[in-house]
Design a protein that fits this description.
This protein is an alpha+beta fold and 553 residues long. It is built from 20 helices and 18 strands. Helices cover 39% and strands 22% of the residues. The strands form 2 sheets. Strands 3, 4, 5, 6, 11, 12, 13, 14, 15 and 16 form a 10-stranded mixed sheet that branches. Bound molecules: flavin-adenine dinucleotide.
């Protein structure tokens, strides 16, 4: 089976109470997942513990772009550009099922064409520095060509545009597949296990853990602990050294989701906000999302929310570049907000702070990684492993993770979902599977889709849970049995991104999802009700800013 086994969570908890691990990673976002995979594939014994669900923090709330690092060019961070560009290629190689190549249009406005020349020079340098293959190099469009390519663009003072391919991913599923890979290489991986204490005894690190499901406490032991807790990095450091000075500057970014029929764009479009920051729209299936903001944040970390002010900032900017689009808060069908765990740089506003990662080792030996990007997680993991290997006093051979595919990433010669769909393997399965289900399973699970279908005993279970909703009973069961989904929110928000893209659809099917999960996990009626209340509260809070907009209108 290409994922977790049905009893994986219990077995991992049991291993945590018994074994001594070389490395224990705290945090099941992309940073921790990357370290876990890297370490497990080099042959270290490894455990990863996540306080909530995998990717429940920032790693399910990014803009979902595998950036080539063009933005860092402007900031003069050439090594970061090279790294991001290389990693973009690696990710496409190891996870082709999770990467969609999508054109990005950057219109340039002004009295003269100076801005367009500057952009062209930057992109030419970028293509060279980043080793962009010929078919992916940028093109410059005249104003007429730009409008022909994107008829919704404002025309006044439009000088032209640049067009280049951007990679779009599903961040939460990238985390999950990376963790599955670590698990398949022998790692003990567990969600809903919170680190509550860090100590030392008999030459080992001791890690106090609370199983958030049972409330039971246990102590794990490891030679080295890696703190990959994203926005919670400072809280973890405080468990190690109560006087440690905070390293992070948290910055909030939000996204608004529209139906594609309300915002009928042909490609992603980059637009200037009123303060000059670039914002963008990204089409994704039947939806288009608009992002993002970059504002200092000091509120609660678990569920940052969109404010009316955040939404106003994005909507105002969008209306300037796409003036004929008559949409506002009422057309928003989904939202999400995330916190960037940036490494503090005194005196700099969030948008100017470097996106580089920083690795530090405390006097007691806690390895902390802060900052970084989804795009560069694999290289970050390599660097963390070097630090950990020094502490372990061991040479660690490279794991070759840039070449070894993630589960689901073996799509055959074309390494392309469409080519796979028309392949013989898919054809055989398609005889009894509805095409829309097959397409969705391939886009989500890649080459593992046939194995997942082999577990389906009743073809009717592949039907959507409600009309037009891209989720079936078979997928919910799979998420519980083989992807360690433990709550309704886990299924509706991260195994599938339904609730962040189409909140009302997710609310419609939440009771059916709760019924299925109750059957799988043996929930009582009371537990089922608690789950639905939690989901209701979360999804209401997500859209509450619209009421504030209505009141001030
Ligand atoms: P997280 O994903 O937050 O993971 C940390 C985990 O640690 C959490 O799941 C948390 O529950 C867990 N944890 C905390 N405390 C404990 C504890 N005591 N015990 C156990 N577990 C604990 N990058 C890109 O490359 N491309 C983009 O398009 C992009 N867009 C972005 C847009 C926005 C709005 C934001 C906010 C970020 C964006 N990023 C992007 C950056 C990227 O998303 C982050 O760098 C990355 O997701 C951070 O991952 P992480 O694993 O470090 O943190």
């Amino acid at each position: 089976m290409p994922g977790f086994e049905p009893n994986s969570r219990a077995r991992s908890l049991e291993r945590l109470s018994r074994e001594v691990f070389d490395l224990l990673v705290v945090g099941g976002g992309i940073t921790g997942a990357g370290v876990a995979r890297e370490a497990a594939l080099t042959g270290l014994s490894l455990a990863l513990v996540e306080a909530r669900d995998f990717a429940a923090g920032t790693s399910s709330r990014s803009s979902k772009l595998i950036h080539g690092g063009l933005r860092y060019l402007e900031q003069g961070e050439l090594s970061l550009v090279r790294e991001a560009a290389t990693e973009r290629k690696s990710l496409r190689r190891i996870a082709p099922h999770l990467i969609v190549v999508a054109p990005m249009l950057v219109p340039v406005y002004g009295r003269t064409a100076a801005g367009l020349y500057k952009l062209r020079a930057g992109l030419t340098l970028y293509d060279r520095l980043a080793g962009v293959p010929a078919e992916e190099r940028h093109r410059i469009l005249s104003a007429e060509e730009a409008v022909a390519s994107e008829p919704l663009l404002a025309r006044g003072r439009l000088q032209g545009a640049a067009l280049y391919p951007e990679y779009v991913t599903d961040d939460a599923r990238l985390v999950l597949d990376t963790l599955k890979s670590a698990h398949l290489a022998g790692a003990a991986v567990v969600n809903y296990a919170r680190v509550t204490a860090l100590g030392a005894a008999d030459g080992l690190r001791t890690i106090g853990l609370r199983d958030e499901e049972s409330g039971c406490e246990l102590t794990a032991r490891a030679r080295v602990v890696v703190n990959a807790a994203g926005p919670w990095v400072d809280a973890l450091r405080a468990l190690d050294e109560p006087d440690a000075r905070p390293r992070l500057h948290l910055s909030k970014g939000i996204h608004l989701v529209f139906r594609a029929r309300d915002l009928p764009l042909r490609q992603s479009v980059v637009m200037p906000a009123l303060d000059g920051r670039p914002i963008f729209t990204v089409p994704r299936g039947p939806f288009v999302y608009l992002g993002t903001t970059d504002t200092s944040y000091a509120g609660p970390l678990d569920e940052p929310l969109v404010s009316a002010e955040d939404a106003h900032y994005l909507l105002t900017a969008m209306r300037r570049t796409l003036p004929s689009v008559a949409i506002g808060p009422r057309e928003v069908v989904g939202t999400w907000a995330g916190l960037r765990p940036l490494v503090r740089q005194e005196g700099k506003p969030p948008s100017e702070i470097s996106r580089r990662d920083e690795i530090t080792v405390s006097t007691s030996g806690l390895v902390t990684i802060a900052g970084g990007k989804l795009t560069t997680y694999r290289r970050m993991a390599e660097r963390v492993l070097k630090s950990a290997a020094r502490l372990l006093g061991r040479a660690v051979a490279p794991a070759g993770t840039a070449q070894r595919r993630l589960p689901g990433g073996d799509l055959g010669p074309g390494q392309d979902v469409d080519a796979y769909l028309s392949s013989r393997v898919a054809e055989r399965v398609m005889q009894w599977v509805p095409r829309d289900a097959m397409e969705r399973l391939l886009a989500t699970h890649g080459s593992d889709a046939p194995e997942i279908l082999a577990l389906v005993t009743d073809p009717a279970s592949l039907r959507p849970l409600a009309e037009g909703v891209p989720l079936s009973a078979a997928e919910v069961r799979h998420a519980v049995r083989h992807e360690m989904a433990r709550t309704v929110v886990d299924v509706l928000e991260r195994r599938s991104p339904l609730s962040i893209f189409a909140t009302e659809s997710a609310r419609e099917v939440a009771p059916a999802v709760a019924d299925l999960m109750a059957g799988e996990l043996g929930w009582s009626a009371e537990r089922r009700a608690v789950e639905l209340t939690a989901f209701d509260r979360l999804t209401r809070a997500r859209l509450a800013w619209r009421d504030a907009c209505a009141m001030s209108a």
